[in-house]
């Protein structure tokens, strides 16, 4: 089976959010399952070609409504996965960030979808390679299922199935009608596009026209069928529920491994964490300028500071906890100015307990995973979430709201001997829920150390590798192929 994965992001080339982590690691797992998986990305100007051993594969003139663009197709191999990076002036190749302003991004990504189609044709002519499945991710590449669908009358496109993955339905590429017309995209005369009024919604177009669709966790696949989580795409997701699958994201367990992580002062695993892990907490406390004490629970956050993440109700609840308990808190992340300001106020008001770093620091992130006792994720919604899985892998117990992938991955503590549980789960989006759950967790930390260690061990040995998820994607691809080929 041949699969082309199209995305706006992929580690290690371009990363803004969790999309990059998925596209950077899933293809290698697919190849381990016998799939010829390849990835196509925009060849952003900030990508260092020398560091990634990227070379020019071929060029070709691409004729489109805006004129003729010389497309440069660069290629490299990462983790045994072939990557293609497309450039074409002025759309892609000179930027210093993945995303720019909305109207220019609309034009750039529409052009990228068209350029991918042209590149596929060139690959078929030059290398004899065409995919059985084109797998697109979020709105940036969601035009491809439509473009492939309207070309299936041609022999070369007839056998290509399409899959659209939703990583976050809140970002859907809406209000694109004028840009699509400007780029010469044909009228979206497709039954489901008409029925649900999605002519100018890029993600909606991809969900209406793909052969199969999926979200990045089973719980999120249910949630997006309701308006409170799926917004204007909820009715379409509900209508297509027979073609919808929830597949939980995995993590790269070789990369995220406390037994080999060079950023930890003391490596450890599920058998040695009780003896060796505390050294990382002490080193983190010392690095942060906090009192170095084993008996004080340290709460960590590594996150984008976006409205989705729930800090609007979490910070007031956290304030109560810090006022009532001898606890410590460290936050690493950047995002919306109002949330950053609220985090600064928290640090100012609790200078002996709180440290806030409004930055992205990969080393410090690893040390927070490896040294914190609790890891807070109070999200309003969370399609999958990676942070809670990394925290568990490193022995930090998550405190999460019961939503999306958080509900799928964190087992709630049984409040007894920890015969069940890998963390602490709450339901309501209120400060009381956050403070009450943190109070419960801190009390467990002090009063039930044996139960705490049992949860840590269970969390660290939970399998979040890509193995199971990759096999589910292979199954989804096979379903998509059978659907269009009538097998």
What does this protein look like?
By secondary structure, this protein is of the alpha/beta class. It has two domains: 2-250 and 467-485, 3-Layer(aba) Sandwich (Rossmann fold), CATH 3.40.50; 273-461, Rossmann fold, CATH 3.40.50. It contains 20 helices and 15 strands. It has helices at residues 18-32, 102-126, 144-150, 155-158, 177-182, 191-195, 202-209, 218-223, 227-230, 234-239, 273-276, 278-288, 311-324, 337-349, 362-371, 387-393, 404-409, 431-447, 449-461, 467-485, and strands spanning 2-6, 36-42, 55-64, 67-78, 81-87, 133-137, 161-166, 212-215, 244-246, 298-302, 328-332, 354-357, 374-377, 397-401, 424-426. The strands form two sheets. It has a nine-stranded mixed β-sheet with strand order 3-4-5-2-1-6-7-8-9, with helices on both faces. It has a six-stranded parallel β-sheet with strand order 12-11-10-13-14-15, sandwiched between helices. The radius of gyration is 23 Å and the shape is elongated. The two termini are 15 Å apart.
Structure described in brief:
With 487 residues, the chain is α/β, with parallel strands linked by helices. 41% of the residues lie in helices and 17% in strands. The chain has helices at 18-32, 102-126, 144-150, 155-158, 177-182, 191-195, 202-209, 218-223, 227-230, 234-239, 273-276, 278-288, 311-324, 337-349, 362-371, 387-393, 404-409, 431-447, 449-461, 467-485, and strands at 2-6, 36-42, 55-64, 67-78, 81-87, 133-137, 161-166, 212-215, 244-246, 298-302, 328-332, 354-357, 374-377, 397-401, 424-426.
